[in-house]
Write a structure and sequence with these properties.
By secondary structure, the chain is mostly helical. It contains ten helices and no strands. The longest helix has 15 residues.
């Protein structure tokens, strides 16, 4: 946490290499601890620091890693919501998440989704898909 502060907010300009080192050479549980320590030692959280110190695809990559590290279930719930919300469905994202999390933690992701969005993931899939595709997705969710 101290190294990230010194690489960003604690200096003029940003030392992107230090951010890469901390974000890419640590495990996700370690990154979550870094985020906790950062928030405890500074007036705002690590997410705010990343937003203020980086931009573009680099910022997006760091925020994705941080979101996943700090709350994996919320991360996937948000990804699924973006895939299903609005006009059209991002089928590749929907399939990728459901298939890859099906045997790991999909039930927990479904519970978090309902808590965050006050609607079940099943209901969203039913409203956004049809036919055999819908039946296959709902089977993954059951």
């Amino acid at each position: 946490a101290k190294a990230l502060y010194k690489a960003g907010e604690g200096r003029l300009g940003t030392n992107e290499a230090r951010f890469v080192d901390v974000f890419c050479r640590r495990s996700f549980p370690q990154l979550a601890l870094v985020a906790e320590h950062y928030a405890a030692q500074h007036p705002h959280d690590l997410r705010t620091a990343v937003v203020s110190e980086t931009s573009g695809n680099f910022r997006a990559a760091l925020l994705t890693m941080l979101d996943y590290a700090c709350s994996r279930y919320e991360f996937f719930a948000h990804v699924l919501h973006r895939a299903l919300d609005g006009i059209g469905t991002s089928n590749n994202v929907l399939q990728h998440v459901l298939i890859n999390r099906m045997d790991i933690d999909l039930k927990t992701i479904q519970a978090v989704y309902k808590q965050l969005y006050h609607e079940s993931l099943d209901a969203m899939v039913k409203s956004d898909t049809s036919g055999d595709y819908r039946r296959a997705l709902l089977a993954m969710l059951s």
